């Protein structure tokens, strides 16, 4: 039986925007309504709308021109009733992966320097739960996400953490079976342990090296999907 996929608010809003483009038969270069107008049209807050716009811009459905407006980029390629084609999802994930490398890479280094004994215990318990779910054949996406968030918190940098939170819906794409591919979790699983061991040993260089192996593994899977 196929799993029911839970959609985030920005995905729902982005789908409504795409439906609007199609219903109005808009063409490349046509200007969309303003942010304020669309919040009223779709009955959503500005933050949800802006996140949907960032999402659509990342997959090249629209172009946002500061001070001028929001424009349709390419309707011919992207008429897919809200479902992103595989090639576009791959490109989107690879773009966000670059951001993950920058944000999490720094967080991993800081966590290796600043992690507390209590946080080591929390992450150990998180990995134990990860192992239990994996061995029982249950989904591991959310515990994987919890592990990475735990590292971000262990970095003890609220600004870095808030930047991650600002793109959380995009970031979390990696933890909801991206491309419908459980393999991404299975093949990166060992690096979670080696990275954590280096963090717990307060070895930032080794922790970052293991993190980069994890990121390289994810990138390889996405590119060869």
UniProtKB/TrEMBL annotation:
<feature type="domain" description="HTH gntR-type">
    <location>
        <begin position="7"/>
        <end position="75"/>
    </location>
</feature>
<dbReference type="InterPro" id="IPR000524">
    <property type="entry name" value="Tscrpt_reg_HTH_GntR"/>
</dbReference>
<dbReference type="Pfam" id="PF00392">
    <property type="entry name" value="GntR"/>
</dbReference>
<dbReference type="InterPro" id="IPR036390">
    <property type="entry name" value="WH_DNA-bd_sf"/>
</dbReference>
<keyword id="KW-0805">Transcription regulation</keyword>
<dbReference type="InterPro" id="IPR008920">
    <property type="entry name" value="TF_FadR/GntR_C"/>
</dbReference>
<dbReference type="GO" id="GO:0003677">
    <property type="term" value="F:DNA binding"/>
</dbReference>
<keyword id="KW-0238">DNA-binding</keyword>
<dbReference type="Pfam" id="PF07729">
    <property type="entry name" value="FCD"/>
</dbReference>
<keyword id="KW-0804">Transcription</keyword>
<protein>
    <submittedName>
        <fullName>GntR family transcriptional regulator</fullName>
    </submittedName>
</protein>
<dbReference type="InterPro" id="IPR011711">
    <property type="entry name" value="GntR_C"/>
</dbReference>
<dbReference type="GO" id="GO:0003700">
    <property type="term" value="F:DNA-binding transcription factor activity"/>
</dbReference>
<dbReference type="InterPro" id="IPR036388">
    <property type="entry name" value="WH-like_DNA-bd_sf"/>
</dbReference>
